[in-house]
Automatic annotation (TrEMBL):
Catalytic activity annotation: 5-methyltetrahydropteroyltri-L-glutamate + L-homocysteine = tetrahydropteroyltri-L-glutamate + L-methionine
Domain Cobalamin-independent methionine synthase MetE N-terminal: start-end pairs: 3-318
Active site: 705 (proton donor)
NCBIfam families for the chain: met_syn_B12ind, PRK05222.1
Repeat found in the keyword field: yes
Lineage per the UniProt record: Bacteria, Pseudomonadati, Bacteroidota, Flavobacteriia, Flavobacteriales
Binding locations of L-homocysteine: 442-444, 495, 610
Keyword annotations of the record: Amino-acid biosynthesis, Metal-binding, Methionine biosynthesis, Methyltransferase, Repeat, Transferase, Zinc
Molecular-function GO term, any one: 5-methyltetrahydropteroyltriglutamate-homocysteine S-methyltransferase activity
UniProt-listed Enzyme Commission number(s): 2.1.1.14
Chain sites annotated for binding 5-methyltetrahydropteroyltri-L-glutamate: 15-18, 118, 123, 526-527, 572, 616
Protein name, entry field: 5-methyltetrahydropteroyltriglutamate--homocysteine methyltransferase
Organism: Chryseobacterium oncorhynchi
């Protein structure tokens, strides 16, 4: 039996890489300094794994930005627009690389970055390869060889990790018509061969090909490509040991394909899809070994050793221990680095957790235990593990019977507003008296350095609670006054008291805990620190009423209450694994519902429940979409349905591509939905129009992601386009997302123009 790791976090346990990259970009350090930081992180990671006793330690899992972009550079998939950068920067490979990732606005050049998108269903974002017809590829970077050599120097014969050829192509985008990216397989294959030959020459024995698409729905053509590519590679390299790694879902209908590939090891994700084990061990051929992905690479919980050992025993019984490898479910890229840094966590909770470094040890312990070790330390670890697992089952920190009973008692009625939208609409019109094309914003106003400094000072104790409160009130009041002055119809309080739209709520809910250093890479140098939902969720006290009420007291116009929805809170947190996600989501929904009801009681008549993450929660396999959408939509409805007909519920989403879930969005039954669509120039609205979306819609009329101030005329144009497909009485006018990241200067200009556009459009409509 052997152990291996699919990939280790590369940001550094104190986010050293983030800091070094940002310093390099701003010219504060030179290239050699950045490279030193990179090499140190690699060495640290290798040592952690070596000391823990991992058999196959990965290399090339490190990256200065993104592993897919690394691949694009290695195979020379460099879009032509970057060639000039290479010239300007003396052919510095890393400068070219960063230009592809981040764009290049220097030296008289203005070159856009490559597109970025989510890595499967994670919160990690990769740089999308660009493909052209008849594209030629060429070995361009030596990063992978340098890393292999670096590991060798550290005394490790590492296992290079590369993105499998088929997955690499499937991750990319065709940038012109008339070809299929899979047609490029024959062109790119020689580069893969070249990479492998060099690695073999350097002494590599193992190669890990990441092929996550084998656990997704794929076309017949992709399946055929898998067969040709791996047969060819096998033919060229009869002695290299190939691992094909699948993760994020089960092999399911691709099992026979995966099992037929001429490779040495197949890795499967038994955290996401434990059910597949039985079928997999019964169908793989005798010359194929199986890597069991048992330790959750996507979450922060301690492994349940007893449970994992049962899986291992089952596999060993059927395959023999020589054909079994133990591993995390996927790369540890998605877990925080090291639990040891969490010195402030409640010890009982800390005892339930494992971050990357701890997970490495778990993998080794599982192998030892499965092999009948007599090592007393490991036997003790096992006892500790059993205790931790059983304490999670019963701890009063986690289990709150009142919450469980309430969730269980939820009925159909709880996710139903009192009356249909048609009736509610009349009530709301009477109560709210809004004009045609009402104007509003999405919630946040600029979080200036000043506002952030108040929060920092308050946290450090340099400002008293009363001082902090006064400053925030002044800022809120100014913002209310200003919105009144420029003539916005539905005001917001500005969200100055919030650090982050999930953290702000998590901090006030029971069942959440926050780490000090639990950073995970989101993209490039950007890291996020997701809250940990460890227990039953409840709301001990109102969370937003104070600020909404204060803002409402400052004006005679309507102030919109602002909440984050249950699906988004779930989606952007580490979620407990001892109950279904749907159950946790329902508990959060009930907490938000209480908040909605309290806001109404406090006189807030318009309440927005943001759900920007609802689409990204979609399962990877289409067959599971309906189940997810059912509970996700229900959770939203539970949160929204406690109020009277006359109270208007808004929701907001900021990812396009609603076409395939438009029916479910309509099922959410929000009275008003505001969506991002200024960048796609209202194309998105077609989905709503074709479907005849019945409720009100605020299609974003300008892009807040850029400092550019749009003109009134542009926005009138967009409003006209919107009216072509949606009846005027259904339309709202608003930016496409919150203004938190903008400066006041451009915000003021843009909103003044937006209000003018709405007024003009209303006049034009009436004549
Ligand atoms: N209300 C939030 C804001 O305005 C919404 C943010 C979002 O959609 N991501 O900041
Ligand atoms: Zn948004």
């Amino acid at each position: 039996m052997q152990t291996h790791i699919l990939g280790y976090p590369r940001i550094g346990s104190k986010r050293e890489l983030k800091k070094a990259c940002e310093q390099y970009w701003s010219g504060k350090i030179v290239l050699e300094e950045l490279l030193t930081v990179g090499r140190n992180i690699c060495n640290q990671n290798w040592n952690i794994q070596k000391e823990a006793g991992i058999d196959l330690i990965p290399c090339n899992d490190f990256s200065y930005y993104d592993q897919v972009l690394d691949m694009s550079l290695i195979v020379g998939a460099i879009p032509a627009r970057y060639h000039e950068v290479a010239l300007k920067r003396n052919n510095s490979e890393l400068d070219l690389y960063f230009a592809m990732a981040r764009g290049y606005q220097k030296d008289g050049l203005d070159i856009t970055a490559m597109e970025m998108t989510k890595w499967f269903d994670t919160n990690y974002h990769y740089i999308v390869p660009e493909f052209y017809k008849n594209q030629q590829f060429k070995l361009t970077s030596s990063k992978i060889f340098n890393e292999f050599a670096g590991a060798k120097q550290a005394g490790i014969n590492a296992k290079p990790v590369i993105i499998g050829l088929v997955s690499y192509l499937l991750l990319g985008k065709e940038k012109e018509e008339g070809f299929d990216k899979l047609d490029l397989a024959q062109n790119i294959l020689p580069v893969y061969v070249e990479i492998l030959s060099k690695l073999q020459e350097q002494g590599a024995e193992w190669i890990q090909f990441d092929e996550p698409f084998l656990s997704l729905d794929i076309t017949e053509k992709a399946k055929e490509t898998y067969i040709t590519v791996y047969s060819e590679l096998r033919k060229q390299f009869p002695t290299l040991k190939f691992i094909v790694a699948t993760y994020f879902d089960g092999l399911k209908d691709n099992l026979s394909l995966a099992a037929s590939l001429p490779v040495n090891v197949l890795h499967i994700d038994l955290v996401r899809n434990p059910e597949q084990l039985e079928e997999v061990i019964n169908s793989i051929p005798e010359n194929l070994s199986l890597s069991l992905g048992l330790v959750d690479g996507r979450n922060i919980w301690k492994n349940d050793f007893e449970k994992s050992l049962a899986f291992i025993n089952k596999a060993v019984e059927k395959l023999g221990s020589e054909r079994v490898l133990i591993a995390p479910s996927c790369s540890l890229l998605h877990s925080p680095c090291d639990l040891d840094f969490e010195t402030n966590l409640n010890p009982e909770i800390k005892n339930w957790l494992a971050f990357a470094k701890q997970k490495v040890k778990e993998v080794v312990n599982l192998k030892e235990l499965a092999s009948g070790t007599e090592n007393q330390d490991i036997i003790n670890d096992f006892e500790e593990n059993k205790k931790a697992v059983s304490s999670r089952k019963t701890s009063s920190l986690i289990h709150n019977n009142i919450v469980k009973q309430r969730a269980e008692a939820v009925t159909e009625e709880d996710s139903q507003r009192k009356n249909s939208f048609q009736i509610r609409r009349e009530e709301q019109q009477k109560a709210l008296q809004l004009p045609l094309f009402p104007t509003t914003t999405i919630g946040s106003f600029p979080q200036t350095a000043e506002v952030r400094s108040w929060r920092a000072k308050f946290k450090k104790g340099e400002l008293t609670a009363a001082q902090y409160d006064t400053l925030l009130k002044e800022e809120t009041q100014r913002t209310i006054r200003w919105q009144e002055e420029i003539g916005i119809d539905v005001l917001v309080h500005g969200e100055f008291e919030r650090n982050d739209m999930v953290e702000y709520f998590g901090e006030q809910l029971e069942g959440f805990v926050f780490t000090k250093n639990g950073w995970v890479q989101s993209y490039g140098s950007r890291c996020v620190k997701p809250p940990v939902i460890f227990g039953d969720v409840s709301r001990p006290a109102p969370m937003t009423v104070y600020w909404s009420q204060y803002a409402q007291s400052q004006t005679n116009q309507w102030v919109k209450g602002m909440l984050t929805g249950p699906v988004t809170i779930l989606q952007w947190s580490f979620v407990r694994d001892d109950q279904p996600r749907s159950e946790t989501c329902k508990q959060i929904a009930l907490a938000i519902r209480d908040e909605v009801v309290d806001l109404e009681k406090a006189g807030i008549r318009i309440i927005q429940i943001d759900e920007p993450a609802i689409r990204e929660g979609l399962p990877l396999r289409k067959a599971e979409w309906q189940n997810y959408l059912k509970w996700a939509v229900e959770a939203f409805r539970i949160s929204a349905s406690g109020v009277d007909d006359a109270t208007q519920i808004h929701t907001h989403m900021c990812y396009s591509e609603f076409n395939d879930i438009i029916k479910n969005i309509a099922d959410m039954d929000a009275d008003v939905i505001t969506i991002e669509c200024s960048r796609s120039q209202m194309e998105l609205l077609n989905a709503f129009a074709d479907f005849k979306y019945p409720n009100e819609i605020g299609p974003g009329v300008y892009d807040i992601h850029s400092p550019r101030v749009p003109s009134k005329e542009e926005m009138i144009e967009l409003l006209k386009k919107a009216q072509d497909v949606i009846p005027a009485h259904q339309l709202w006018v608003n930016p496409d997302c919150g203004l938190k990241t903008r400066h006041w200067e451009e915000t003021e200009k843009a909103l003044i123009a937006m209000v003018a556009a709405a007024k003009e459009a209303a006049v034009e409509y009436s004549i």
